[in-house]
């Protein structure tokens, strides 16, 4: 359990500068409702502590997909489109979606996790096919994809609060010293060089899916040091630049420059080469419910073949079949699914246990907090209106997304939802995870409000509720060595499919891993 | 008899105050009537007539007051203070709520007049036992006329510009009740029901003081300083700030501080908006108006007798209700919003277009200028694509497109955006004095062609001849190489902001 001292230390760590500045009047947040939501940690723990049940019935299927996140759903889609309809998908949560889950109220939908998809790289035709199927890619114009403009992020997309004012974009630009400015320019130019770089065999230095990136030592050697060490080595020392790069790493990996490898840090900037006929290269696809929209399109392929509330707790192989034991914790019924193939569309730290193995040491996961903050009114700010992405400089949290930004309706909404994203990387993951799960709702309200109040001093009176979603194992962390460490093999007919195999937690990777696993089943 | 002298001095001072107040109420009513109903000469003379006549009625009834004169006088002062004091506020508030606003106006004028008419005769009755008759008559009337002179001078020079009508009438109401209180205090031994009257006077004074303090709040007149004209109506709807002003016979509508029309020259704007698309369709029957909740574009459409139906989609019910319900405003749009052929849908145009509808022959788009991201979305290629769902090959669309003189890049950006989505466009412009040079773009899925049908009668500025000129764009109204306006770039909003920045 938490001692009081530990508790206070953790809170202070989470709050960072915000807490020190906090001079709240007691009771200022008493009116704020909401609760702690989250993936069924309880179900997960049952699994960890071992289930001692024996299956009462047996079901036969061609392919069992265990896990209904983006990877699992993409595998199902790939199977169906390849004519393989004999499959089942088992998901432990009441609904599929995994880290791309979303929610909603009578006014708007909002994300609980993943919320956008950058423009796919030109070679990623598999993903573009899916977007076409979903009506999000409308066709091609002079070879460039035309995306659905209701789904491209609307202007004004991003703003940054720094030195007491909001500026457009997230890269610090206003109020930089000439040196800081030059360094920023030099860094971005260097990233462009990496983006254009190819190895002798014609592979891109950095690519998405990451597996297609060059294996040339000149690039792979970047996996041996941290991003911070690399910045140091290259003479990048200015504070705004370091903040920006750290921000980007925390955004994509849940861990900052001190933790992730230089390879991963550079990958963030250098792997995206997506273009559109009708948008800037920096545009992203997003919806009020975030990637929940993509999940909704994926789900159609496994609609009637999904068993929700179903944990796959043991997987063995026997001859030419895979035996997967499942437990439905709602009906409290255990069963055995006998399949020709099994796709473990779940992270290694669960999947390996199910196979009776231990996960490789390179697999460490960043815990996250996602808080949906319900407001009566939006805060009104001087220089810029609320944008899609709103970042406050130098904070522990990454700022917030405004779900209703992607609406064309001019009627003012009766309530609003902003989603605060917060990687809990202030302690080592296991410690941070354990402590985060012990905090009470009112602690989180205090912490979240302290973050928001740095940009909006009077926001508390607009807030009606804060719903906190804790992702204990939110994202794989691409720590040094990850890209160069071999992932152990699997028993025959068992295939892993999860974004953590890529070391990079993004939709494209999950999609790719799902498709690849499906293809392995199809032979 | 020192105390007697001071007493009658006090009563004479009351005459002075009463006279000032009385004339002020009359001036307030007259000014208000000409603000709210227009035609100042008629309004002023009928209001003054009605007021003087009511004073006569008051004077007539003064004969029935024979006992407890002082108490009645105090009673009267309180009542005049109350009715006169709140009259302006009441009229402003009722402006858009009562169909027969005129009746309320004249009732109030009649009531105030009658009460004021009672004052002087009653006072003379009180004084007659205390003074020589001749002295009394001369002094009372001297003070009465001086009061009137003072009122007539300070009203236009000080009160209207400094306080505005509503505060002025509250202020003079307070003076009336102050007279009541002073007289009460001074004569408390002679006055009957003194306790009751004191309570009443204090209550009414309190009410008027509160009214004076909160009048800005009550009417949302916070921005009145920003307008040169007198504000006659102002409300914050959930969507926008709606302000109507009047200066002489010119009524203006402002939405969020932006001028939407001036009644003096709006016909130029609306004739140029409506008749070109109508003359480019062979047989316009079904018309869609997006925006245009003031009913002025609909008025022009209704000049065509063969129109079957008009659907008017406007975000804000506050605007369509104001322009449908108020008689003065319905006079501007010829009651177009009440026409049986017209159907009002109060919703967001973007959302409305996303649900299925029968096609329309002519679509008239009269949105506010693209001065912010929210309305900027209504000028995007996505919106124009959506719009094509309610069009046939024959349909003609027209869009109001800000000033091609002040904001040529904005204007041509809209043109570029329309052409990008498949419209063939025909841009034109027209001079509207209160706006300046104003732009429109007509669009159709095939090149718009004039069908040669006769224009309806009664047009004051638009004709085929003038249209030929409207289509010519001199170099100072041209701009080239403009981006397509999209949800993901809001290029138009950025251009518009820059181009208008120097003008506002
Ligand atoms: C806070 C947050 C924000 C993010 N934002 C973005 C973003 O904006 N854009 C982006 O591209 N990516 C984002 N991501 C990354 C996101 O993780 C990926 O985009 C993608 O959703 C990962 O999908 P997956 O299938 O690999 O994994 P998961 O989503 O982890 O899916 C695994 C699924 O397996 C289920 N499962 C686990 N164990 C079992 C079992 N034993 N039996 C049955 N089912 C089981 C789980 O319940 C889950 O549904 C974000 C992640 C987080 C945590």
Topology of this structure?
The complex is a heterodimer of chains A (523) and B (504).
Chain A: H1 4-15, H2 17-21, E1 36-38, H3 41-48, E2 57-66, H4 70-81, E3 87-90, E4 102-104, E5 109-111, E6 116-118, H5 125-133, E7 137-141, E8 144-147, E9 158-162, E10 165-168, H6 178-196, H7 217-220, H8 227-233, H9 239-253, H10 262-270, E11 284-286, H11 292-299, E12 306-307, E13 310-318, E14 321-328, E15 333-344, H12 348-354, E16 365-375, E17 389-392, E18 400-402, E19 416-423, H13 429-438, H14 441-453, E20 463-476, E21 494-496, H15 507-522
Chain B: H1 2-37, H2 40-61, H3 69-94, H4 101-127, H5 133-162, H6 164-186, H7 194-219, E1 230-236, E2 241-247, E3 250-255, E4 258-262, H8 266-279, E5 286-291, H9 296-301, E6 309-313, H10 317-325, H11 327-332, E7 342-345, H12 349-354, E8 362-366, H13 373-376, H14 381-387, E9 396-400, H15 408-420, E10 424-432, E11 436-444, H16 464-470, H17 491-501
Parallel strand pairs in B: 5-6, 5-8, 6-7, 8-9
Antiparallel strand pairs in B: 1-2, 2-3, 3-4, 9-11, 10-11
Helix pairs in contact in B: 1-2, 1-3, 1-4, 1-5, 1-6, 2-4, 3-4, 3-6, 3-7, 6-7, 15-17
The structure holds flavin-adenine dinucleotide (FAD).
């Amino acid at each position: 359990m938490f001692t009081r001292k530990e508790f206070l230390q953790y809170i202070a760590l989470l709050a960072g500068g915000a807490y020190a500045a906090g001079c709240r009047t007691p009771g200022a947040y008493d009116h704020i409702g909401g609760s702690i939501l989250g993936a069924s940690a309880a179900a997960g723990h049952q699994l960890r502590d071992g289930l001692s049940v024996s299956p009462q019935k047996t079901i036969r299927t061609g392919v069992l997909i265990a896990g209904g996140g983006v990877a699992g759903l993409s595998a199902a889609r790939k199977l169906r489109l390849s004519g393989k309809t004999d499959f089942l998908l088992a998901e432990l949560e009441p609904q599929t979606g995994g880290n791309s889950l979303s929610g909603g109220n009578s006014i708007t939908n909002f994300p609980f996790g993943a919320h956008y998809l950058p423009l796919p790289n030109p070679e990623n035709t598999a993903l573009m096919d899916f977007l076409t199927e979903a009506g999000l890619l409308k066709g091609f114009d002079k070879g460039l994809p035309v995306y659905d403009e209701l789904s491209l992020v609307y202007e004004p997309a991003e703003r940054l609060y720094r030195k007491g004012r909001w500026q457009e974009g997230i890269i610090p630009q206003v109020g930089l010293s000439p040196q800081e400015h030059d360094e920023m320019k030099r860094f971005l130019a260097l990233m462009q060089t990496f983006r254009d770089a190819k190895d002798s065999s014609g592979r891109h230095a950095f690519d998405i899916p990451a597996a297609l990136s060059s294996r040339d030592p000149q690039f792979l050697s970047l996996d041996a040091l941290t991003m911070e060490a690399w910045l140091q080595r290259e003479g990048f020392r200015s504070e705004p630049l370091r903040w920006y790069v750290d921000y980007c790493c925390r955004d994509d990996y849940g861990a900052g420059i001190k933790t992730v490898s230089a390879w991963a840090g550079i990958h963030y900037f250098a792997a995206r080469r997506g273009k559109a006929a009708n948008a800037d290269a920096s545009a992203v696809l997003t919806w009020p419910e975030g990637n929940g929209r993509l999940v909704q399109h994926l789900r159609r392929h496994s609609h009637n073949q999904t068993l929700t509330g179903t944990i796959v707790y043991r997987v063995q192989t026997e001859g030419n079949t895979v035996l997967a034991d499942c437990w439905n914790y709602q009906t409290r019924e255990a069963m055995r699914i006998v399949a020709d193939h099994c796709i473990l569309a779940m992270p290694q730290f669960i999947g390996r246990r199910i196979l009776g193995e231990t996960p490789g040491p390179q697999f460490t996961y960043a815990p996250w907090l996602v808080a949906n903050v319900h407001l009566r009114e939006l805060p009104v700010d001087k220089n810029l209106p609320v944008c899609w992405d709103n970042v406050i400089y130098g904070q522990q949290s990454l700022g917030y997304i405004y779900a209703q930004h992607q609406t064309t309706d001019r009627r003012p909404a009766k309530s609003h939802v902003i989603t605060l994203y917060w990687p809990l990387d202030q302690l080592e993951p296991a410690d941070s995870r354990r402590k985060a799960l012990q905090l009470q709702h009112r602690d989180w309200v205090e912490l979240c409000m302290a973050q928001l109040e740095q940009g909006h001093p009077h926001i508390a009176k607009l807030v009606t509720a804060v719903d906190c979603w804790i992702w204990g194992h939110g994202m794989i962390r691409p720590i040094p060595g990850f890209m160069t460490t071999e992932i152990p093999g699997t028993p025959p007919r068992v295939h892993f499919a999860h974004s953590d195999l890529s070391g990079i937690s993004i939709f494209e990777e999950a999609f790719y891993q799902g498709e690849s696993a499906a293809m392995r089943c199809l032979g | 008899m020192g105390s007697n002298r001071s007493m009658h001095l006090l009563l004479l001072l009351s005459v002075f105050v009463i006279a000032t107040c009385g004339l002020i109420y009359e001036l307030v009513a007259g000014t208000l009537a000409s603000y709210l109903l227009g035609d100042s000469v008629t309004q002023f003379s009928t209001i003054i007539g009605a007021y003087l006549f009511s004073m006569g009625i008051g004077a007539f009834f003064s004969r029935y007051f024979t006992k407890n004169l002082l108490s009645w006088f105090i009673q009267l002062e309180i009542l005049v203070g109350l009715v006169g004091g709140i009259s302006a506020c009441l009229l402003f508030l009722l402006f858009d709520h009562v169909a027969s606003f005129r009746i309320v106006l004249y009732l109030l004028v009649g009531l105030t007049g009658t009460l004021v008419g009672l004052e002087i005769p009653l006072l003379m009755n009180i004084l007659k036992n205390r003074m020589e008759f001749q002295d009394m008559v001369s002094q009372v009337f001297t003070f009465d006329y001086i009061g009137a002179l003072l009122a007539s001078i300070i009203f236009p020079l000080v009160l209207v510009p400094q306080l505005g009508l509503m505060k002025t009438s509250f202020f003079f109401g307070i003076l009336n009740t102050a007279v009541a209180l002073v007289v009460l205090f001074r004569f408390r031994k002679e006055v009957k029901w003194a306790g009751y009257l004191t309570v009443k006077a204090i209550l009414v004074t309190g009410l008027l003081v509160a009214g004076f303090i909160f009048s800005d709040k009550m009417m949302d007149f916070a921005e009145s300083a920003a307008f040169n004209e007198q504000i006659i109506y102002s409300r914050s709807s959930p969507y926008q700030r709606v302000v109507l002003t009047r200066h002489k016979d010119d009524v203006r509508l402002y939405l969020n501080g932006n001028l939407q029309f001036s009644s003096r020259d709006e016909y130029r704007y609306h004739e140029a908006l409506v008749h070109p698309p109508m003359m480019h369709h062979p047989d316009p029957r079904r018309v869609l108006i997006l925006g245009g909740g003031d009913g002025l574009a609909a008025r022009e459409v209704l000049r065509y007798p063969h129109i079957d139906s008009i659907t008017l989609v406007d975000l804000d019910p506050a605007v369509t209700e104001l322009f449908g319900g108020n008689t003065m405003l319905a006079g501007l749009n010829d009651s177009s919003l009440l026409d049986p052929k017209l159907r009002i849908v109060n919703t967001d145009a973007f959302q409305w277009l996303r649900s299925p509808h029968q096609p329309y022959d002519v679509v008239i788009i009269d949105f506010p200028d693209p001065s912010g991201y929210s309305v900027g979305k209504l000028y995007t290629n996505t919106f124009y694509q959506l719009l094509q769902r309610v069009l046939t090959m024959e349909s003609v669309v027209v869009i109001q497109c800000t000033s091609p003189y002040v904001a040529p890049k904005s204007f041509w950006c809209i043109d570029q955006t329309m052409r990008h989505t498949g419209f063939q466009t025909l841009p034109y412009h027209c001079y509207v004095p209160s706006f300046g040079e104003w732009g429109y773009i007509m669009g159709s899925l095939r090149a718009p062609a004039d069908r040669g049908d006769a224009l309806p009668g009664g047009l004051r500025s638009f004709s085929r001849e003038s249209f030929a000129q409207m289509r010519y764009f001199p170099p100072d109204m041209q701009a080239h190489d403009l981006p397509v306006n999209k949800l993901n770039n809001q290029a138009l909003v950025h251009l518009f902001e820059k181009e208008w920045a120097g003008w506002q």
